[in-house]
Amino acid sequence: MPLFTVEQDVAVVRLAAGKANAISTDLLDRLQRTLDEVEASGAGAVVVTGYDHYFSAGLALPLLIDLDRSGMKQFIDYFSRTMTRLFQCPLPVVAAVNGHAIAGGCVLALQADVRIMADVDARIGLNEVQLGIGLPSLVVETLRCSVPERALVPLALEGRLFTPREALELGLVQEVVVASELETSAIARARDLGRAPHAAFAQVKAALRRPALTTLLREQAAETERWLDTWFSPEARTRLTEAVRRLSRKAHAGGPKAAPSNS
């Protein structure tokens, strides 16, 4: 479950939600509550990180694969609200990407102001198109706001996954550090951002992100329906079902540490 401690005026949120931090309704509930507690704690900035080799390997496909259209719409709407909640956080937010950040896990990292990744054998990216599914409006708008334009084709249209050094070159992350220094580096960066007067930082951050949020609110309902069309397309159902089978086989085999294929 997401928990946080306050270290040097920085709230460090550590995601620990089962195998690979797969994103379920339970994780989203706990993350929402944690963000409320963080903002009420008086902390000046936030670091979000994961556990072991995982930041988050994406949506919890085994829990989602059998949902009907109405159930899946309810889930993706809640996912979008939770990510938007982090995107709008008035405090400085640094993602300390300690391992795999695949699909929904990458989306989680994209909501931060700064992404620092450990130099480990891990992958980060949005591989949804490779599974036959699209990107909800929340993902598209926060992606546009968070990475250079040159990164949009390899990330969104090609659905590639990147090593930490490749992600740095692409502009998906701002810094790569040795794993043992990740949390210290992220806290230091968050403290630097948090030194600005809070009201001024919050106003500028909100202004910078307002165009993305305005477009998101305008387009979200229609884009969600178009996204659901892709989720329930025959090709996507075949690929998603096979991805769930692979995850099941890995779980029974003890789970290798290679990059998973979650959405």
Describe this structure in words.
The chain is an alpha/beta fold and 263 residues long. The protein contains ten helices and ten strands. It has helices at residues 25-40, 61-64, 69-87, 104-110, 137-146, 152-157, 164-170, 182-194, 198-231, 234-252, and strands spanning 3-7, 10-14, 45-49, 54-56, 93-97, 100-102, 114-118, 124-125, 161-162, 175-177. The strands form two sheets. It has a six-stranded mixed sheet, with helices on both faces. Strand 1 (3-7) and strand 2 (10-14) form a beta hairpin. Helix 3 (69-87) packs antiparallel against helix 9 (198-231). The longest helix is centred in the last third of the chain and has 34 residues, at 198-231.
Total beta strands:
10
Q: Rough shape?
A: globular
- For this structure, what is the CATH class? Alpha Beta
Residue fraction in strands: 5-15%
CATH topology call: 2-enoyl-CoA Hydratase, Chain A, domain 1
Quick tags:
263 residues, alpha/beta, 2-enoyl-CoA Hydratase, Chain A, domain 1, 6-stranded mixed β-sheet, 4-stranded mixed β-sheet, globular, disordered C terminus
Q: What layout of secondary structure does this protein have?
A:
Blueprint: E1 3-7, E2 10-14, H1 25-40, E3 45-49, E4 54-56, H2 61-64, H3 69-87, E5 93-97, E6 100-102, H4 104-110, E7 114-118, E8 124-125, H5 137-146, H6 152-157, E9 161-162, H7 164-170, E10 175-177, H8 182-194, H9 198-231, H10 234-252
Helix pairs in contact: 1-3, 3-9, 5-9
